[in-house]
Amino acid sequence: MKKTVIITGSSKGIGAATAILFAQKGYNVVINFNDSYEAASLLCNSLVANGYSAMMHKANVANKLEVDLMVKETLYKFGSLDILVNNAGVAFQGLITDTDEADFDKIIDINLKGVFNCCKSVIPSMVSRQSGKIINISSMWGQVGASCEVAYSAAKAGVIGLTKALAKELAPSGITVNCIAPGLIETSMNSNLTIEELSDFVEDIPLGRMGSADEIAAAIEFLASDKADYITGQVLGINGGYVI
Prior knowledge:
By secondary structure, this protein is an alpha/beta fold. The chain has helices spanning 13-24, 37-49, 64-78, 101-129, 140-144, 150-170, 195-203, 213-224, and strands at 4-7, 28-33, 54-58, 83-86, 132-137, 175-182, 235-238.
């Protein structure tokens, strides 16, 4: 029986690369999106056209009811839910004095509350089967903090704390929970940076380059595989040596 994975925020970037890899590995893939219908539809149709098992579902991860419906539909269609990849996220740059309450709430709601909502929704089915893997996507800024990204850094640090606590809570049920903290990855999330800013950033990376979405996807797939059965509560930094 094929295993099933939900990947939040998987219409593009790291999420899309992860969806493609899991499909190629033989999983049933649920492509989650909120605003990016066209990108999600294009990705899903491409996977299905190539003989892979995939479906798409619109859900705002900050909305518990929408998340519950996505999980319910996944279980109805595929019969099981084996892996959750909490990838959905949004960024915000600006001085704390320029960050209003609505900005802060949005970052926390999607980047941290969204992880909480999705975990809470999938855990009952995983516990009933005494099996499952949860992989949360944080950021190196959740490890060390970023100037002018207070809300984002706080949310991503929260994801790390949530991962460690939940790993302890779910270990007796045979469920592993791990976290990946990417560094500078070549995705649209960094499109707000100028060429000069990117160049300056890369100069500070020991490996001397940006990472790729495929490299993050490969790490996610490893943590979801049987080879990672004895790994839980860990934070894997993929940042080219920027954070050591």
